[in-house]
Design a protein that fits this description.
Blueprint lengths: L2 H9 L5 H4 L3 H26 L9 H11 L5 H15 L7 H8 L2 H13 L1 E2 L6 E4 H8 L3 H13 L3 E4 L21 E4 L1 H9 L14
Antiparallel strand pairs: 1-2, 2-4, 3-4
Length: 212
């Protein structure tokens, strides 16, 4: 990288390199090492709290995960990476695609997905979980343009489903949409539910005896 390119890049780095008293290379290296260290430390703490042993994570999952998480700076996203790593290192393995999906999520999209999971309810006549897109948008106090963009991003990642109505068209398969309408319904997809569970981290093993 040329000197001119480095100076231009430093203008886009937050916090500014000059304020840190570092060179651009130093700043990038420190940010990456610090974030990876946080993810590893928090993942181990979560496994310890759940009284679970650390199982080796396949390199195909671990290396892309550490590379992707090293670029995060927001606390809630770092926590999600730590949870995902803890899940991968527990008895529950994760597919490599989960790393790709989390690295593609913005913090706002991740929070929206969490909110949808908490807000959705069983829709009448369908057995599926979801909520009105209008009610959901209003609960988040988001402008329609922002809401549409984030929902469609989650849709492209396969994390949510959009439907014409609560009954999914006379109880048949859900109708996937390419545009969010106020009278649509939205819910987390089965893939999204699995992804969210992995990003929550491993649970403590049950101490209760199995009932027969």
């Amino acid at each position: 990288m040329t000197k001119e390119a480095r100076e231009l890049l430093s203008l886009f780095l937050k916090p500014p390199v000059k304020e840190l008293g570092l060179t651009l290379a130093d700043a990038v290296r420190i940010f990456r090492i610090k974030t990876v260290g946080l993810v590893l430390t928090r993942a181990k703490a979560k496994l310890d709290a759940a009284k679970l042993e650390i199982n080796p994570v396949p390199a195909k999952v671990l290396i892309p995960m550490l590379e992707a998480c090293s670029l995060e700076q927001e606390k809630d996203m770092i926590d999600r990476w730590a949870n995902l790593l803890a899940t991968a290192a527990s008895a529950n393995s994760i597919p490599p695609v989960f790393v790709q999906v989390l690295s593609s999520l913005s913090p706002a999209e991740a929070r929206l997905l969490d909110s949808l999971k908490k807000l959705q309810k069983k829709l009448p006549g369908s057995g599926r979980m979801g909520t009105s897109t209008r009610d959901f948008r209003l609960s988040l106090q988001l402008e329609p343009q922002v809401f549409n963009r984030e929902i469609l991003s989650l849709l492209r990642l396969g994390l949510v489903e959009l439907f014409f109505d609560a009954h999914f068209g006379l109880g048949g398969p859900s109708h996937y949409m390419t545009k969010v309408q106020e009278n649509n319904f939205v819910g987390t997809s089965p893939f999204g539910d699995e992804f969210l569970a992995a990003c929550t981290g491993p649970s403590k093993p049950s101490s209760e005896p199995t009932r027969r």
